[in-house]
Design goal:
Elements (H helix, E strand, L loop, with lengths): L11 E7 L10 H4 L5 E3 L1 E5 L8 E5 L2 E8 L6 E10 L2 E8 L2 E5 L6 E5 L9 E6 L5 E6 L4 E4 L6 E2 L9 E8 L2 E6 L4 E6 L2 E12 L7 E7 L2 E6 L3 E6 L8 E9 L10 E3 L2 E7 L5 E7 L2 E5 L2 H14 L5 E7 L2 E7 L15 E5 L5 E4 L6 E6 L6 E7 L6 E8 L4 E4 L5 E2 L2 E4 L11 E12 L10 E5 L7 E2 L3 E2 L10 E4 L3 E2 L3 E6 L5 E11 L4
Parallel strand pairs: 5-33
Antiparallel strand pairs: 1-43, 2-35, 3-4, 4-43, 5-32, 6-7, 7-8, 8-9, 10-11, 11-12, 12-13, 14-15, 15-16, 16-17, 18-19, 19-20, 20-21, 22-23, 23-24, 24-25, 26-27, 27-28, 28-29, 30-31, 31-32, 33-34, 35-42, 36-40, 36-41, 36-43, 37-38, 37-42, 39-40
Length: 519
Amino acid sequence: MAYTKTPEQSTYSSERIPAAYGINLRPGAVSTANKDAGMINVIPFQNNKAGSKELWGETRYGLSGVSVVNSPGSVCRGTYVWEKTSSATYYFVVVNTSVYTSTNGLTWTAVDTLLTNATTPVRFTEFIDSTNVKKLVLVDGVEGYVYTTNAAGTKITDADFPTPHVPFPVFIDGYLFLAKAGTGDIYNSNLNDPALWTAGDFISSELYPDDIQAILKVNNYLLAIGNQGSEYFYDAANATGSPLARYEGGNLPFGTSFPNLIATNKDTVVLLANNNDGEGVFKVIEGFKYKDIPCQFVLNLLNTSVNATGPSVVRGYFFRQQGELFYAVCFNGALTTTSTSTTTPTFAYSFSTGLWFELVYGLSTMFPVFFTASSTSNRLLTSVAGSLNGQVFFGLFSNLFNTDTINGLATTTIYQEIRTEPFDAGTLNVKTMSRFGIGYSSNNTSASSPLISFQYTDNDWDSVSAGVITQGTNASGVGGFPFATQLGIFRQRSFKVYTNNLNRTRWKFFEMDINKGQQ
């Protein structure tokens, strides 16, 4: 029975908990993915008011796009938005062995046919010579092409072009750099010409006894990443051989076995690092400094996925929302873990809050591959499995869209889900809950019909209760809010709030009226 100790000390109270939670799975991540705290399509942000540490969740941006090709078994290999001049933007998408280009992102033309395996990633880099001629270079691990417009490219046929190579092209000071596959050697093109190469123009990464997995441009340095370690090089302007020299003391005591999880953005790099200590860890590199990103549940899923299909099934990329940078890991169709049963999981990390969350795009069979490079917008290439059998779509990821709208597919609302940590009000006393309210802002909060679904459990989701959400009225000019009442007794309780009905939403907090009661 509930009680009050003294008239001065009431056991009744209103409690608030955040509406933003990072994914916090227990060991055995797949088995607890639907039970532990986390969010789907809700991105955590910190209140930017001075001195505030309040967290809230915001609906992810919507996706709008068009079909690039309708071919059974289509595989997305790479994409790029090349803003060559202020008046000339060219779009590139590689599907299977075909290179498609466009001048508007809507109408596509196949301009080149590649030779390599359709699962090998294709990457791009922009090139500019001393006379200000701008080019775009595509490499796929075997071949290289040079483009000046959206027309067919010029294949690199020089006998000294490194092949096979690691498909991470780097441009520095008029040179194109590529690492030869299965070696520690970094080759360079002739000055001002990515199509011409000279035998012997290379430098070796020798600090660690392993092969190069990727080379990246970090500020004006070249970072060579191996399996066990990484080191920096700089342009020493050598008259013969490679222009590069090793940056003494510029090395990192880790490498990676997952080059496709690398994401780079000028001076920031994220990779799944091999520390040579028995367990991988995501690291963010900024200049010459680095730090860990806690991610045990992602590693558990990676181990499950990789054991079955190998590291090629995962991709890493950056994207931005509301000016903030995020890193995402896409499992590329290899694993199912969430309550949306056919979803391919994509997990993302917020650098500002340190929280992981989940993304689901469009239909449950759709998954993102990676974002393009573009200075003005987030572009996303997606593939669709199931009945559409591998169509590839090129889309814009923007706050201008409240839904996912893909040509050939039905428009779908953005599903949003928040799962809280267990709440006990600081005591395991038997408590009563008379009301659960939701503090949020949305473009359709005034609708009369229920827009939000609400579940709770007191026993780790072995059994679930559903509260009836009521949309409060604007009595006497006081704004209404959604709430549920008569929620019974509990010791500790977890909540799940989810909706397919709200569009642009800011989830601020959850509020409960409780009586802490007695033992």
